[in-house]
Amino acid sequence: MRTNRRAVCWGLKLLxxxxxxxxxxxxxxxxxGHSCAVTTSGKGICWGRNGFGQRRVPAGRYEQIVVxxxxxxxxxxxxxxxxxxxxxxxxxxxxxxxxAQVSAGTVHACAVTRAGQGVCWGSNSYGRASVPAGxxxxxSARYVHSCAIRTDGQGVCWGRNRDGQRAVPARRYxxxxxxxxxxxxxxTxxxxxCWGSNSxxxxxVPAGRYTQISAGEGxxxxxxTDGQGVCWGxxxRGQLRVPAGRYTEISAGGAHSCALGTDGRGVCWxxxxxxxxxxxxxxxxxxSAGRSHxxxxxxGDGVLCWGNKEGSGAxxxxxxxxxxVSGGDDxxxxxxxxxxxxxxxxxxxxxxx
Length: 353
Hints:
- The protein is mainly beta.
- About 0% of the residues lie in helices and about 45% in strands.
- It has a four-stranded mixed beta sheet, with no helix packed on it. A three-stranded antiparallel beta sheet has the order 2-3-4, with no helix packed on it.
- The protein has strands spanning about 10, 25-30, 35-40, 45-50, 60-70, 70-75, 80-85, 100-105, 110-115, 120, 135-140, 145-150, 155-160, 175-180, 180-185, 190-195, 210-215, 220-225, 230-235, 245-250, 255-260, 265-270, 285-290, 295-300, 305, 320-325, 330-335, 340-345.
- The termini are close together.
């Protein structure tokens, strides 16, 4: 989007997904062949594919809209949560109440209401949508199981338990992260614990105290209290080999990992066959590792993305300041500090408008 807050998109054109309606926007999210945004007046608008009605935004004023696959969900200004699009498993059928936090899984979704109630909807195979009684402050929905932290700090998981991913140790937790078939969490005492699948050693946590943890597909990464990055689990592509340094953030992707140094420099390691480990030079304040691409927000509020299908490395982004970056299946969108929106197919280039 240009400085007048009008959206501009380009890249792979599938049924209009690169042609946003005219208007002024403040937030955007990209999905599988369609995108949605919130205008400066709070109206929700979607464009692109509409095979499951994913463009049919319910009436209302919105604070935020999030797109995942073929489903779109939004939070209205009154706190009401609504979803639309593919409802094969009931994932678009949202209980009629106000929510404080939501997490979308593969074919189910979960949320915490303002009163602390945990609610899940969609596919309930393995019981993944059957929330235990209690009040919650955080919830996480993933492939076939879900986890949450109760207001008293107790962790609880439900759903499939073939690998023991529901067997939460009795502790008080500050953070919880549900992975593909394992779960990790950090206690209020800064102890990191993992349980569930250990096919690649992804739940064998090295001794130490931790401040942040991130579960990837077959490996896990965390930051110790003294700022060291530590990874464990699958290492077929070198995703565990953290470069020496002190870090403030770490992110475990598909078969690569990224971290943000205390000096603001971003670094990635592991599988780099699509350029996802070739971090452009500069200083960053946020970094994120996807399955085969990576993105970061610079200290100057610019956004850089690298990797994905084109196998490209560093790509220079034209002038612009950004506050948030969101990656879809085939492209990435970012919201600028001025409210402008830019999108690019292939998660490679985000122009400044």
